[in-house]
Amino acid sequence: MNSREIFNFVADGLFQELSSDESLNISFRGEDTDFVRWTQAQVRQNTSVLQMEISFELHKAGRRVLKSWSVQGSPEWDLIQARQQLQAARQEIAVLPVDPYLVPFENKGTSEAVFHGRLLEGEKLIAAIATPSKGYDLAGLYAGGTIYVGNRNSKGQNHWFANETFFMDYSLYNGANAAKACYAGFEWVQNDFESSLKRTAEQLQVMEKPRKKLSPGKYRVYLAPAAVAELSGMFGWGALSYRSLKTGGSAFKKLFEKERELSSHFSLSENFDLGLMPRFNEIGELAPVQMDLIRNGKLEQLLVSARSAKEYGVPNNYANASESPRALEIAPGTLSEENILKKIGTGLYLSNLHYLNWSDLQNARVTGMTRYACLWVENGEIVAPIEDMRFDVSLYDILGEGLEAVTEFQEVDPSVDTYDRRSLGGKKIPGFLIKNFSLTL
Amino acid sequence: MTPSTFSTALTEFKKQVDWVGLRFYSEKASRQVVRNENLEYHGSSHDQGIMIEVMIDGHVGYAATSDLTPEGLKAAFNKAKTFSTQASGFKAAAFTQEQRPSSRGQFQSPYLHRLDALTTEELIRILLKASQSLKVSEKIVCREASAWLTQTEIYYLSSSGAEWSQNFNLVNTHFLATAQDSKDTQTRSTGNSLQSGAEALRKENLLENCEVTGQEAMELLEAANCPTGTMDLLLAPDQMHLQIHESIGHPLELDRILGDERNYAGWSFVKPENFGHLQYGSPLLNVVFDPQESGQLASYAFDDVGNPATREYLIKDGQLLRGLGGLESQKRLGISGVANQRSSSWNRAPIDRMANINLVPGDKSLEDMISSTEKGLLMKTNRSWSIDDYRNKFQFGCQYGQLIEDGKLGATVKNPNYRGITLPFWKSLKAVGSPKTYENHGSPYCGKGEPNQVIRVAHSSPYCLFSNIEVFGGES
């Protein structure tokens, strides 16, 4: 049996066990991934991972219990384990208090999306990276393989998503100088990877001049799409969550209450047309293909899960349980690539940012560091790389009055997170030109 | 799965490669969250699988699977063998069986009462009461009480004769109060992460601590912003935890110093030649790697390659002595390290990680340190952390601050932050608290590695006093 058949076998087996006052939402998550960790353009560690997990949420008498367990891949054995989990859940649910915000399961439909890729394997894969990288000091991670996500419920809902993708997330070094890139997709094209390497090496060459040490102060900066992607990661830390707003954890409370506003150049949406992520969430609800969250600086809506909708009496927009963006897109503007340096004039070109955190959440203030190819620009010309600097800025400033322009081009930033498992998703992000960007250390 | 299943598999596999190790990992966890006196989440998980590691021509490669049938193990072994044979021609370093010791033994976390002695009803009752205790005012808009109880079993077997097992009981608790009025929102929290039994949740002072947490959130709502300036800074152990972690733990990791981590978490300002020579901090600074301290979250007998874990000084009298690197990094660099090659779970290869990194107590009472301070700030409980990829320039924020003026604790201040550079900061250490001020704090959330791994760490520390630190608050 393949992954989907195993999932269906276990799900069908559990649905048959349910009594009339029970309902069940069941999910599958699996992957078959090859990871290769690189340092100095050589293999540090290769790790192949086959993992499968089933989880369910059992409802009975207004209460709920969640369970998850590793799946072996032997259907009969896995169904025995599943039945034991169901029995344990029944014992626990009997002693739980009623859940006032329980969202009953419904049949939210059926969907199927399967994307096949053309990935390299084994010897070909390692040589395909090692051979053109020879002579570079390359560090990074290749991850490739298939990810499976399934969801069904006892009301008849049925979703399946699988995609076969890879990424080679890497950086090149010349001593302390570094440039960063990520080559990712469904099909490994050797020429494309080698072009990526060449572009990154050219970026590294720019770093060879002596570094300029900056003083703390306010600067005009250009944030390249990778830097904006890092900044937009903060939107997933409660900023766009309705529940976080109500529990004091949203950085956009003042935006919600119209006490502060953002620039008309700034628009943010969820766009599942990117195709990097299934539209269905943990309970199988299908999010709209496109949904504006912030349009021309004004908050249109926050992300609302079914549970928050019930708790706070607001419309559900089918967010995931953590109410974080899953397919984030920042709208492009009008700044062309050839005009970026000219528009910076004298200031900074920042390729990447690093280790961001809220320094004052209620005022949407963020601190972090510059990283990789960050350059000093004078009169529209690149002069020198900079020594890394710390920044401390409010989103209300840099995405408000400070946001001078947004690039007309966007880049796809695939998610390369691999905590516990390979993540899905990604963002589509332009570059930003910002004035009065505050460097502090 | 039984040990004999692994033994049978090992017998078959060891004929085909230079060396093979099997690491079985099973983790049962339960998590309960109560928010605003409602049970928001009640769930549990059972994660298990096996990591097969093979050595071929000096290269160590890995394959992990949740398929624990004999066929599943064989498929994983074949994958590891094939892929690692190919990778060995491009290996970054060559190893021998010296990097996989033939250790034998057991480890068991300390406990008085088994974790599963806590019934679901008892646990939920405790969390509901905690949530009620956090509610000291209607302005406490969010009261959250959660418990995460974990039982982990690791069994390791190798072709060179290693056979060891470790059983961990882990308790993570978190209690949070967010106060809100028309002008501001402030959060205060408490809790801990440690190795313990059910007794960790039956402590008599748990509800009292929750009430204090709620009251301090209310205090912050009325408090002035932290002042801006340069002054003495007294850090409580629950902030020292983060300070040690980010500016001592990570820069001393040998795989960072080797450059393995450059593409993700970063490099380090520390060079291999610094060990034994670099003055890292003031002579009052003494830091140990101590996986043997009972009850800390990252205590163990062996790291995940079977290296027996022992207490070692990393920094003594301010001088850097030893790095945080396991047997592989030690061989690559030709310097000594510690037993810290660890994996987050069965599906990740072991890399250099922190474990228990503790700051050794000094001789000052808390009162001594406050009374010796003319102008300063006391800061408690981390809420924000950021540091550069070489571990130099940091900025940290805390939940709760108090002014110190003319040797006395003064008004509470909100949004306290400070920033600095690692070596000057540790050199400004001017007093270290006595054992009476020493506290243990753990965290299950240290992220690092490619592929990414989140691992458990702990840092015990007394209160510590630093001179002339740049501090600042939030926006008015």
Mind explaining what this structure looks like?
The complex is a heterodimer of chains A (441) and B (476). By secondary structure, chain A is α+β, with helices and mostly antiparallel strands. In chain A, 22% of the residues lie in helices and 41% in strands. Chain A has ten helices and 18 strands. In chain A, strands 1, 2, 3, 4, 5, 6 and 7 form a seven-stranded mixed β-sheet that branches. In chain A, strands 8, 13, 14, 15, 16, 17 and 18 form a seven-stranded mixed β-sheet that branches. The longest helix of chain A has 19 residues. Chain A is globular. The model of chain A has no long low-confidence stretch (mean pLDDT 97). Chain B is an alpha+beta fold and 476 residues long. In chain B, the strands form five sheets. In chain B, strands 1, 2, 3, 4, 5, 6 and 7 form a seven-stranded mixed β-sheet that branches. A five-stranded mixed barrel of chain B has the order 9-16-17-19-23. A four-stranded antiparallel β-sheet of chain B has the order 12-11-10-15, covered by helices on one side. In chain B, α3 packs parallel to α4. The longest helix of chain B has 19 residues. Chain B starts with a helix and ends with a strand. β3 of chain A pairs parallel with β2 of chain B.
Provide key terms for this protein:
heterodimer; A: 441 residues; alpha+beta; seven-stranded mixed sheet; 22% helix; B: 476 residues; 23 strands; 21% helix; globular
Can you summarize this structure?
Chain A is an alpha+beta fold and 441 residues long.
Given the structure, what is the number of helices of chain B? 9
| Number of helices, counting only DSSP H or I runs of 4 residues or more of chain A | 10
Write down the Rg of chain A.
24 Å
* Sequence stretches where pLDDT stays below 50 over 5 or more residues of chain B: none
Sheet with most strands of chain A: 7 strands, mixed
